[in-house]
Amino acid sequence: MILRLVIAPLAMTIFVTWSVLAETIAGLVRPMDGDTFEIAGVVIRLAGVDAPEMAQECQGGPKELRRCGAFVADVLAGRIRGKRIECEVHALDKYERRLASCSHAGEDLSTWLVSEGLALAFRRYSEKLVPVEEAAKAAGRGLWQTTFETPWEYRAHRWEVAAQEAPEGCPIKGNINRDGERIYHTPWGSQWYDRTKITESEGERWFCDEAEALAAGWRAPLR
């Protein structure tokens, strides 16, 4: 088994501006990716973890893990879809997502993801789950059967390449689908990014960051 983690000192971050909240959200979920979902239209990102992005691939290991971003999203969706999830919100990021500790039947989802080797401890913000990650790595669970970049390094690489090709260096694609829904696609987080073409004459556009897309009325893709 070969393991390779690449950690860049200037890797992109997800959370930039936090505001402390005292909020509890509970209900049935609508999965979005490996660490994000919706409850009653509120977007929640699991605290303390970073899962592979939807478009991310891993090398080696079992075949089902090669498309590791989609694999992790499917595993999480299978565990929480149609179930009541309870979340304690800690902060609100600049994209209006709730950063929260969430559980099902008393089991913390962030801990479960890391213990199964499906996500990494997000050490930039908390080292609480580092021992859990090290145990999963030692046991060769999940992603630890493959060679992979950390999700934060993957995002940085994808953004850098896409920004070089996008108009004015703004690589987020604001697409309007056949139902008239306005959906934005990031270079790292959407399986459809490379296939999405922007036709500005039809109202589609490019964005420089997710906050700009959200403010303009676009939403992230849903599973």
Written account of the structure:
The protein is an alpha+beta fold and 223 residues long. The chain folds into two domains: 19-149, OB fold (Dihydrolipoamide Acetyltransferase, E2P) (Beta Barrel), CATH 2.40.50; 153-215, no CATH class. It is built from five helices and eleven strands. The protein has helices at residues 68-80, 109-115, 130-139, 151-165, 210-215, and strands at residues 19-31, 36-39, 42-46, 49-50, 84-92, 98-104, 107-108, 120-121, 172-176, 182-185, 205-207. The two termini are 31 Å apart.
Key traits:
single chain; 223 residues; alpha+beta; OB fold (Dihydrolipoamide Acetyltransferase, E2P); 2 domains; five-stranded mixed beta barrel; 5 helices; 11 strands
CATH topology category name of the largest domain: OB fold (Dihydrolipoamide Acetyltransferase, E2P)
Q: Helical percent range?
A: 10-25%
Counting helices, strands and paired strands, the structural category is alpha+beta
Topology, number of strands = 11
Calculate the mean pLDDT score and round it.
86
CATH architecture of the largest domain: Beta Barrel
How would you briefly describe this protein structure?
With 223 residues, the chain is an alpha+beta fold. It has five helices and eleven strands.
